Amino acid sequence: MAAQAPAIEVPTDAELLQAQADLWRHTLYYLTSMGLRCAVKLGIPTAMHKLGGVTSLPDLADALSIPASKQPFLGRLMRALVTSGVFAAGGKDESGAELFRLNPLSRVLVDDVVADEHHSQTSFVLAGTSPHYMEAALGMADWFKKDVAGPVPSVFEDVHSASLFDESTAALDPELDALVTEGLEAHDNLGIGTIMRECHDLFKGLESLTDCCGGDGKTARAITKAHPHVKCTVLDLPKVIEKTPSDCVVNYVAGDLFHTVPKAQAVMLKDLSCLRPRLSWTCSCLSSPEAANVAKMTGVISS
User: Where does the O-methyltransferase C-terminal domain lie (predicted)?
Assistant: First the structure.
């Protein structure tokens, strides 16, 4: 006789209603990311900035050349993004139309602006919500069921036969490769001004620092400008370094952090919250052996 399945615990009415609400939230939350991507692709933050940072729906639709038939749907998108914290809303114009406003989050998504400490994060959004990322996420269940010998590939590698931050990404999709590179540089540069102001003491006694995956060197140059006594080295892939203009302030090294890291008193990984040798979200994207290898080379753990 087949074994009977264990009895299931029946939720209370309150628990059931909460579970249903949570289920809807988790199932449909991807629409928030897609709505954010849509806003960036349409150029909504930039259009709002050009309109003074505050705009009505009709004015926004006109600035974006949105057909009148789609204006109600644009309103739904904006209200959804207000709810998720991407934009703010409040007040009405002379005609009684609701006003939408830029907030700190949407301001970092404004393009075509040259200003100190403004580093648009649109590439970061477009890379993170790209179809390649979505396809990889949809392949997770199949990935878990595959038993493979040797190094376990990431889900992205398994689905696309390409590794992020590798030459194979460019072969897979040059546009994605460029977005990933630009997105990481923008992410790195976003908080460096705050670090210079709020974490000034971290650089006391520091003479050398290696910025792993430092891109165009904006972060390293900001450090040397504020702390001339610190010798900064930027390590990145050859395809990135070859596009970087040489200067006498920062030393640029073409290489791969998985193979060798230039020696320095401190190594900066992708987590900019603290400039000292440590594991960061860079390693969390990797398999355990890769993360351990990076940690050994940067001095986070002993070899």
Answer: 142-271
- pTM, whole model, 2 decimals? 0.80
Bridge-partner residues for 253, per DSSP? 235
pLDDT for 292 equals 55
| Residue 92 CB contacts under 8 Å (≥ 6 apart), including other chains | 98, 99
> For 1-14, how does the pLDDT look when each residue is reduced to its tens digit (9 = 90+)?
567 888 899 999 99
Boundary of a domain, candidates 133, 152, 183? 183
Other beta carbons within 10 Å of 1: 3
Q: Looking at the domain assignment, is residue 286 inside a domain?
A: yes
Total domains, the chain: 3
193 assigned to some structural domain: no
Which of the listed residues 107, 131, 148 is the one where a domain comes to its end? 107
Q: What is the pLDDT of residues 53-112, one digit of tens each?
A: 999 999 999 999 999 999 999 999 999 999 999 999 999 998 999 999 999 999 999 999
The amino acid sitting at 204 is K
Residue whose entry in the numeric block shows the structure tokens 């590939």: 153
